[in-house]
Amino acid sequence: MSKLPNCPECNSEYTYEDGNLLICPECAHEWTPGTEAGSDSEEKVVKDSNGNVLQDGDTVTVIKDLKVKGSSSVLKQGTKVKNIRLIDGDHDIDCKIDGFGAMKLKSEFVKKI
After folding, report:
1. Residue 45: what pLDDT?
2. Which family would the database say this protein is a member of (predicted)?
3. Rg of the chain taking only CA atoms, in angstroms
4. Alpha-carbon span 58 to 105, nearest angstrom
5. Are 56 and 84 in contact (CB under 8 A)?
6. What is the pLDDT of residues 36-47, one digit of tens each?
7. Which candidate in 46, 52, 79, 89 could, as Cys together with 112 as Cys, close a disulfide (CB 3.0–4.6 Å)?
8. Quick one: pLDDT at residue 40?
């Protein structure tokens, strides 16, 4: 029988396998092999409406009219947004738009140029 890794949460040695998961009976943490605490450096992949991977500094275009929360103005379809920054959260693009200022957008409403 091979030695199972210790729990990445509490470092307990009493881990066991359940199908594809490893489980710690002491803290109830569940994980898949290869995703221990040291491998959390995986970056979140953000994709646009067409499935293209977005990166910091990309230029994107808005694909539909978007209401600006707290304002009566609308961000028009086709508006070009330069030099985006990717952030964590529901609105995963942080940017500055000419005529509107700083704004956060959802990646599902933009396409990469």
Report:
1. 87
2. Belongs to the YjdM family.
3. 21
4. 14
5. yes
6. 545 444 567 899
7. 52
8. 46
Cα–Cα distance for residue pair 28/22, rounded to 1 Å: 10
Task: Identify the sign of the CA torsion 90, 92, 94, 98.
Answer: negative
Place of tokens 């995703």: 35
- Report pLDDT for 96: 94
Entry pTM: 0.61
Question: Comparing C-alpha atoms, which of 73, 72, 68, 56 is closest to residue 109?
Answer: 68
Is residue 88 classed as helix, strand or coil in its secondary structure?
coil
* Residue with the two structure tokens 């009566």: 72
The position carrying tokens 């499935």 is 51
Whole-angstrom Cα distance, residue 71 to residue 83?
24
Residue position matching structure tokens 């994709």: 47
Q: Which two tokens stand for residue 64?
A: 């539909």
Spans in the chain with pLDDT lower than 50 = 1, 37, 39-41
Dump strand ranges (E) for the chain: 16-18, 21-23, 30-31, 60-62, 66-67, 74-75, 80-81, 85-86, 93-97, 101-105, 110-112
Residue with tokens 């957008």: 105
